[in-house]
# Entry
Amino acid sequence: MQRFSPASPTRMETPSPASPAPTRRSRTIRIGDLALGGSAPIAVQSMAATRTQDREATLRQVHLLEEAGADLVRIAIDGAADVEALAWIRQNSKARLSVDLQENYRLALPVAPYVDKIRYNPGHLHHHEKDRPVADKVAWIAQVARDHDCAVRIGVNAGSIAPHYKERFPGDDVGAIVSCAADHCELLDDTGFENYLVSIKDSDPRLVIEANERFAELRPDVPLHLGVTEAGMPPDGVIKTRIAFEQLIARGIGDTIRVSLTVPFDDKGLEIEVGRQILADIAAGRFRSVPPNFFDGLNIIACPSCSRVENERFIELAADVKRETEWAAEHDITIAVMGCRVNGPGETDDADLGLWCGPTTVNLKQGTRSLGSFGYDQILPRLRAELETLIAEKST
# Structure
């Protein structure tokens, strides 16, 4: 897998702390009444972490994020019950809303009347109507968005790369996700739809930096949504996110940001607070150095939670994993803790040990190999045993 090295030459000169960031070259699009890209201020957004079907809890999340200063709030949709909840939330909130289509692109049609932006993941388009060409599916989404005056986000994740791109770029995740994003831009361009932006995310900020730099070279006109997905818990999650944002925004790359932190539901406003603080620091030339050897030793990846999470014990489990593995801090091992069945299986593949959570059990993996499913009360001892074995193997 290609990785970004902070010591390697960059394609664009980094401004000194006293210099302003270069002018962004992206075009301006509209998300409802929000201008995004070009000379518009960099927007700060977040995502409701509750199950969408729990409409009262999700509406509370929307209000909490609004009060924290979110320019846009995203909600995940996974079926008819979620669509009904979304309609109710729309009636009870004036927030700008974005929707995540999950694995069923056909949900774009029922949700479009209630939102300002539709996000689809190219890596999920193959799940439904497998015989229908991807270009036709993208054209259909574009037409739905056009009919309902919605923006579109092409959301590419390194943990859910479309199979075709994995085959074209074996061992090169950066090449795969950049090519995928560029190809989907062309698909939308071919339909005449221009009100779109792109996100290219990974849990490693170094990959996020390189991928977004490479994409911005190919398509400087396309607005970019920046984020380090599954950044994890503070303070590590904040540090990872700051690294990516400082490096990219200082190069004139990035038009909207999302900080992804694993925190209790009532603290989700922290994502907005952290995002605005990072933007203020960059604008003022306050760049923070990366701690020595930050990427050495134990690396715990954890997703920020969303409506896909089927057991809220996931957040507690992520904190428990961090605490119970402190003894292994000096070992170069990555542990991924994911909250759902949608992204969990794929986004734990690159970790040495991966946990993805279901309603009653936690699935444990070593790389791509399944080690079985365990109860929430059983998983920590089994994780420790596997971690001890892995460290012993790496030491021989």
